[in-house]
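Chain X:
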Amino acid sequence: NLLSITRLNGEEMKIKKEPEILEEVLSEAVFNFKKKSRDIDISVSVPDTLFFVPMDAMLVEQLLINLMDNAVSHGENTTKIKIKAVSDDDSAIITVLNNGKSIEQNTLRHLFDGSLQSDDAAAITRSVGIGLLVCKTIVEAHGGQIYAENLADGWVSFTFTLKPGGESNYY
């Protein structure tokens, strides 16, 4: 994760977006995630037609794995993850949902800024929000946005957008 941030924050760094089939990138991320989290039930929903999205596939795969890892690590009782992809006029919208523990309202505001703190020494060695900061950095490098919310049905939702275009608007 730290290498990803360093790579994206380099002054000369520009990501190169290539049209990728979103379903294949999602599939690869799920496959790699399942290697270490076999007990989690994962479902993926994508449009019926081929869905090409300009992206750096390796970074988007890392983003998805980070979100799934986060759901298991911090959701405490997560048993299911759903990934849903849709498109609108100018972007791809991907949502990663989990049935784990809800996120406290005051924590939601700071999920993606890397400032989360913990009094628990074990939690600090595991994570202090770096993974979600990496997620935000990757999404912004693709010209998109990311946010999280607790849903009324008890699920937690992480939604991000990927904007089309040749080069990144990340600086």
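Chain Y:
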Amino acid sequence: GPPSIGAQVARRAGIAASEMRGTYEGLWLLDRSDQHASSAPRPEEQLAKTASIRAEMHLDAGDLAQAEAEAKRALSLDPDGSISRQATRTLADVYTSQGRFDEATRAATDAMPARTTRDERWIGLSARTLLARIALEQGRIAEAVAGTRAVVVEARELAEDRVGLLAETLLRDLDPTWVPTDVVRETLPWAVRLPVLAQDGRDLLVRGDARRAAGLAADVVALADSARLGRDGVDARLLLGRALVDLGDLDQATTTYLTALDHCRTMGLPLRAADVLDGLAAVARMRDMTEARSLAAAAFALRTPRKAVRWGYSADFDVVPASRAPDEWLDGDDLSADSVALVTAAFTRTGSARPSVLDSLTAAERQVAERVAHGLTSRQIAEELYVSPRTVDAHLTHIYRKLDINTRARLAALVVDNR
């Protein structure tokens, strides 16, 4: 058939695969769409549309650099501006996640022209949700509530269910009196289902049911990791860490927060990294660690240049920050390349204890190693640590490489010998 139809079919199949099977499951179909487009009479139009969808996939996965590059590529290829609003909205989302609020505001405003077609209504609603999110990050709570409420009401009237549900997760966090939409979670695509489930967990935490909140958060973490939804995975780990603190399980809270910090550093999510650092500061204070105030200072240093404030879980913790964060933790306004390792070392330091071959392991790897020594299977370890069995196996791979061993029996013996 015509190449333009082939490009469109492959692109829509890619979207469906991404929504139902995981973020990057449809990426190869987008490559196929580009192959068809190269033979089309107007290849730029098809290539621009595919680049815009690819940018959304990278955004969902948390690869913000690739998302920005593909969105800008879509804009440069677009011959008649038909895809410009969608690509610009994606850029606004990228910039919001990175704390580049001035650029995000301009992009979101550009994505909302005075008139829209029926197919583009979701873009304007989504852009307005991003503006509400920026207001929340910068402490303009009343503006955030009003903006999000207006989006949810309008989305219901227009039957733009996905955008409405995503906006509603933010509104439920801000306005506990809001009555949420009754939906069957299992029927939603991953990118909508996980934020809704995470908000369900936050509601449980607010009601004082930390154990159920932790269980639901762990489920969302596993689903986010398997579906390659990076930003949702970070948000779920923040919820899980907070619930574990309430339950008094500081070891698992520390591991959860450190994993989230690593993901924030890799993805370039400075404000979520600040939330993680506040959580770690609270844990450090409970453990009488001298680094507690330094961790709070690092969180403050990430927010200040972005004119951001503490909200949500971070507002629950009130550790007075030191006058400045350790220089080696920061690189300008962002975390340094060594920051995760340095913060992790603060929580795994053995003090005056004798050196151990296990000192090279991270906190998460130590927890896995200890459970291997107790004879637990990967699945049992995953259930105890609120992670997926695949994550446990990945930790084991790293442990074996660091310790130059290749069996669980040898690892168990090393743990016992070094207790």
